[in-house]
Amino acid sequence: MPVEFKSATERYKLTDQVDKYVFFDDIFNSKGETTQDPLAGIWFRIEKGPPIGPGLHGYDESGVVYEGTVTLKDETGMEKKLGPGDSFFIHRGSKVLFSSDDCGVCFKCAARPKGKL
């Protein structure tokens, strides 16, 4: 398989909208519908608004905050505000809410097929 590349400007072209203040775009993904261990590379932006989450995470996910701030709160009540350069890991089976006081942009990798938020 060839190597894929994307420009830094891709994070400003997010096309999928989860809510009026949450946007994402899978810019990389494993090829094929039956890939055994799928992996997606995702640009994610969250603007100021109430906490939101996918419910139960059905996959492992890791990310790095590139711009702004992103707050994560898990099912135990632990809450952490992250800034540029900070990273996070969400374990499969966790319940995590995302929010931002301003606007946060992350690059995330998730063990999931393309487009399954």
Characterise the protein shown here.
The chain has 117 residues and is mainly beta. The protein has one domain: Jelly Rolls, CATH 2.60.120.10. It contains no helices and eight strands. Strands 1, 2, 3, 4, 5, 6, 7 and 8 form an eight-stranded antiparallel sheet that branches. β5 and β6 (79-82) form a beta hairpin. It is globular.
Structural key phrases:
RmlC_Cupin_sf, (S)-ureidoglycine aminohydrolase cupin domain-containing protein, 117 residues, globular, 8 strands, Jelly Rolls, eight-stranded antiparallel beta sheet, 0% helix, RmlC-like_jellyroll, mainly beta
How are the SSEs ordered, and which strands pair?
Layout lengths: L15 E4 L2 E8 L10 E13 L8 E7 L2 E5 L4 E4 L4 E4 L5 E15 L7
DSSP summary: helix tally: 0
Low-confidence stretches: none
CATH topology: Jelly Rolls
CATH architectural type: Sandwich
Supply Rg: 14 Å
Give, in order, the helices and strands: EEEEEEEE
Number of domains: 1
Give the CATH class: Mainly Beta
